[in-house]
Specification:
Blueprint (H helix, E strand, L loop, with lengths): L6 E5 L6 E5 L9 E2 L6 E2 L8 H5 L5 H4 L11
Length: about 70
């Protein structure tokens, strides 16, 4: 069985603020508001969530090779 990394460091591209966070395994994170500058991040085109766009480790479904983590909710 593959081990998933659930903690990832997400970084704001506007101000550089970063924070280590636990990624959910049962939900897609489409928005993240930077606690420092207040910018609202959305996934980049082609990415399924903000962790895949702005964090050092992609979301758990992508790590597991399940494809788009939001596919079943769209």
């Amino acid at each position: 069985m593959m081990s998933l990394t659930l903690d990832s460091t997400i970084r704001c591209p506007e101000c550089g603020f970063s924070r280590r966070e636990r990624m959910p395994t049962d939900a897609c994170v489409w928005f993240w508001e930077c606690p420092d500058c207040g910018v609202l991040l959305k996934p980049k085109p082609g990415d399924c969530c903000v962790y895949c766009s702005y964090a050092d480790i992609p979301c758990p479904p992508i790590q597991a090779g399940d494809g788009d983590c939001c596919q079943s909710t769209i």
